């Protein structure tokens, strides 16, 4: 017993089990909130990391207007497709650095006996710069007119390994969707994007892809604008060019990284509100648990309160004893919840390594701070009851 | 020095009023040893509580060291209880989860004494009541007499001028009772003013004088030979007589 604090804590440690049970509410509350927010925060960081790995000044254009109706191209007059000429027109804008028309689809890639069904990206040789990829071996086909089909392919590292093992793939031939392509390059590993394995895919000229997938339009146009340009200005310029070309219809959707992050921010806000509600309810439950326990403690220790008043404890000190006790209980409960959440998170990380989790230090500090505040809050009424006891009445109770 | 002038204390119980103290006038000098006797319900504890500044008179004045207690604010009262007055109770009132030593330290915890000094003083007080080998025991590991001696160490560790004891031997066998009373006598010899409430004539005879209370009034003041010869104090006590019948408590 080192001080008033020690005296307050002595009551907790003399009723270990009861104290533990009374803080269960706050422990579970704090624990679940830390758990949920750690998963939420991990997911947010993961998505952010995934999105920005392509660079923040990347913009994509998709056919159809997604603003007013959920499904593009269902309402309104004629919906024009996006074409290679659209891409060329955008490329002429001074603020636009690089443009890549993309036609993609699933197709089988066959090398001799071995074959794999993978994602095929019809692109231009600008794609490594736009997506910030690196070529490990060889390179892309030479720049030229994107509307010219060429029988050349670049393989993702996983696809290359699956088809060619450790032997050199450069100069070898593969069949994609029935056509023959010469392998001119192999990409560096890039890993997953939102759970999608980019390394298990192949890149071919966009015109070749359009031929394989039998269409005359592209799925998407992506471009990178100059760092110095303002995103809104660029989007406006690009939109004007496309509207002009599409006979005055805005039948396409422009998505900037900012917009994507904003959408994600909205989702995170909803999650935050939901977690906040859980936190609020569980803290209330926890607070009631501690309030009840402290109220009972004051009743049980009435004669002790009379005694300490008689030997020179002031009202404020009696109040402090019970406030400290409540705060210590709640903080201890919060710490237990925190430790439980950490243990669970460690377990999750080993069991489900793909589920991203992250617990910033501020969460830990906040969890303990909020627990402490809850304790003070729920200790106020019992402490007031204790300090207002008449010392004589208190001494008489036995 | 203690001065009581026309001190009354009544309690409202429902619609009626219980007059626990009625016009009590008394002077107690520093260093005196005074016993308070009287039948159950005669107001002894009420008087002791007022003397200990735990309670205030409904009317009348209580002067402690020349200061009127009813004029003191909450902080001053706490200060007086902390430093000037020691309490010993019939039921010991030890904190059961603390060791003997920690119980003795308790008044100094609230006084804000630094831990090393606190420990040293508590150890000295424990030694004074002959319990150094029991310092780390909890109250439930101590006998009644030992508990009361711990309580006595706690009551004196702040060096009070006035010690108030309400039936300090009421729950003890005669041997432990004698040990506690011997300790009280020794404290009194060293200048401590002692007021002891008791039903036991043997305890009262150790005092310099005794006040006999009935129905909230001091009805007799005994000293010297009268005090020596008391056998028991009953409600039917007749003023002027010393051979009084014993009353069961
Ligand atoms: N808080 C209270 N409320 C109402 N009545 C009280 C209160 N305290 C004391 N009394 C009454 O005042 C009277 C004196 O009580 P007190 O406790 O002083 O008696 P006592 O002489 O100490 O008795 P005992 O020898 O039994 O301890 C009793 O009638 C008691 O019922
Ligand atoms: Mg009494």
Describe the structure.
The complex is a heterodimer of chains A (398) and B (249). Chain A has helices spanning 4-13, 16-22, 24-52, 84-91, 127-131, 157-164, 206-212, 231-245, 257-300, 302-310, 315-351, 361-387, 391-396, and strands at residues 58-63, 96-111, 114-123, 135-138, 152-155, 173-176, 179-187, 192-193, 196-197, 201-205, 220-225, 252-256. Chain A is an alpha+beta fold and 398 residues long. Chain A folds into 2 domains: 2-50 and 262-396, no CATH class; 100-221, no CATH class. In chain A, a hairpin with a 2-residue loop joins strand 8 (192-193) and strand 9. In chain A, helix 11 (315-351) runs antiparallel to helix 12. The longest helix of chain A is centred in the last third of the chain and has 44 residues, at 257-300. The two termini of chain A are 25 Å apart. The model of chain B is unreliable at 234-249 (pLDDT under 50). Chain B has 249 residues and is an alpha/beta fold. Chain B has a domain at 94-159. The longest helix of chain B has 16 residues, at 174-189. Chain B is globular, with a radius of gyration of 18 Å. In chain B, 47% of the residues are buried. Chain B has helices spanning 44-51, 74-83, 100-111, 115-128, 144-156, 174-189, 201-205, 224-228; strands at 2-13, 16-28, 33-37, 59-64, 67-68, 85-88, 162-166, 193-197, 209-214, 217-223. Chain B has a 6-stranded mixed sheet with strand order 6-7-8-3-9-10, sandwiched between helices. At the A-B interface, helix 1, helix 10 and helix 13 of A face helix 2 and helix 3 of B. The site of adenosine-5'-triphosphate (ATP) has 12 residues of chain B, from strand 1, strand 2 and helix 1. Magnesium ion binds at residues 44-45, 166 of chain B.
């Amino acid at each position: 017993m080192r001080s008033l604090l020690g005296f307050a804590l002595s009551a907790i440690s003399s009723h270990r089990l009861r104290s533990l049970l009374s803080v269960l509410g706050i422990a579970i509350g704090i624990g679940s909130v830390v758990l949920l927010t750690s998963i939420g925060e991990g997911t947010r960081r993961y998505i952010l990391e995934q999105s920005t790995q392509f660079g923040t000044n990347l913009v994509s254009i998709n056919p159809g207007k997604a603003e007013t109706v959920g499904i593009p191209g269902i309402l309104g007059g004629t919906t024009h497709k996006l074409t290679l000429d659209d891409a060329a027109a955008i490329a002429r804008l001074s603020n636009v650095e690089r443009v890549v028309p993309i036609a993609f689809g699933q197709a089988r890639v066959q090398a001799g006996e071995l074959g794999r069904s993978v994602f095929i990206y019809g692109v231009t040789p600008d794609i490594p710069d736009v997506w910030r990829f690196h070529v490990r071996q060889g390179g892309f086909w030479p720049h030229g007119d994107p509307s010219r089909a060429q029988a050349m392919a670049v393989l993702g590292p996983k696809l290359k390994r699956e088809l060619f093992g450790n032997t050199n793939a450069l100069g070898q031939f593969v069949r994609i969707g029935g056509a023959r392509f010469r392998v001119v390059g192999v990409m560096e590993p890039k890993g997953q994007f939102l759970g999608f394995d980019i390394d298990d895919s192949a890149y071919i000229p966009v015109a070749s892809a359009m031929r394989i997938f039998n269409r005359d339009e592209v799925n998407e146009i992506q471009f990178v604008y100059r760092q110095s340009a303002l995103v809104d200005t660029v989007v406006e310029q690009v939109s004007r060019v496309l509207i002009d070309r599409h006979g005055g219809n805005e039948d396409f959707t422009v998505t900037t990284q900012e917009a994507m992050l904003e959408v994600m921010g909205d989702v995170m806000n909803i999650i935050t509100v939901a977690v906040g509600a859980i936190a609020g309810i569980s803290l209330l439950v926890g607070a009631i648990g501690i309030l009840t326990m402290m109220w009972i403690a004051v009743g049980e220790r009435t004669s002790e309160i009379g005694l300490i008043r008689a030997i020179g404890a002031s009202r404020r000190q009696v109040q402090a004893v019970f406030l400290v006790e409540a705060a210590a209980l709640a903080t201890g409960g919060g710490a237990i919840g925190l430790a439980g959440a950490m243990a669970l998170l460690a377990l999750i990380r080993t069991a489900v390594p793909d589920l991203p989790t992250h617990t910033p230090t501020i969460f830990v500090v906040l969890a303990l701070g909020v627990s402490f505040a809850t304790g003070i809050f729920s200790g106020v009424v019992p402490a007031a009851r204790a300090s207002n006891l008449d010392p004589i009445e208190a001494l008489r109770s036995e | 020095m203690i001065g009581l002038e026309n001190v009354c204390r009544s309690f409202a119980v429902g619609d009626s009023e219980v007059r626990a103290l009625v016009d009590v006038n008394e002077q107690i000098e520093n260093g005196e040893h005074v016993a308070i006797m009287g039948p159950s319900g005669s107001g002894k504890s009420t008087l002791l509580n007022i003397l200990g500044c735990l309670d205030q008179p409904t009317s009348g004045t209580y002067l402690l060291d020349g200061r009127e207690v009813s004029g003191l604010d909450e902080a001053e009262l706490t200060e007086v209880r902390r430093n000037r007055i020691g309490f010993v109770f019939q039921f010991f009132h030890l904190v059961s989860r603390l060791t003997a030593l920690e119980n003795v330290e308790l008044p100094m915890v609230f006084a804000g004494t630094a831990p090393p000094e606190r420990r040293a003083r508590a150890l000295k007080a424990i030694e004074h009541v002959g319990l150094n080998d029991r310092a780390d025991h909890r109250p439930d590991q101590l006998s009644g007499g030992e508990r009361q001696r711990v309580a006595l160490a706690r009551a004196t560790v702040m060096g009070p001028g006035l010690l108030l004891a309400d039936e300090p031997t009421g729950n003890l066998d005669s041997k432990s009772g004698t040990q506690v009373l011997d300790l009280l006598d020794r404290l009194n010899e060293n200048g401590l003013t002692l007021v002891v409430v008791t039903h036991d004539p043997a305890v009262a005879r150790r005092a310099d004088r005794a006040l006999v209370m009935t129905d909230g009034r001091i009805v007799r003041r005994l000293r010297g030979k009268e005090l020596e010869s008391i056998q028991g104090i009953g409600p039917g006590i007749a003023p002027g007589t010393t051979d009084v019948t014993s009353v069961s408590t």
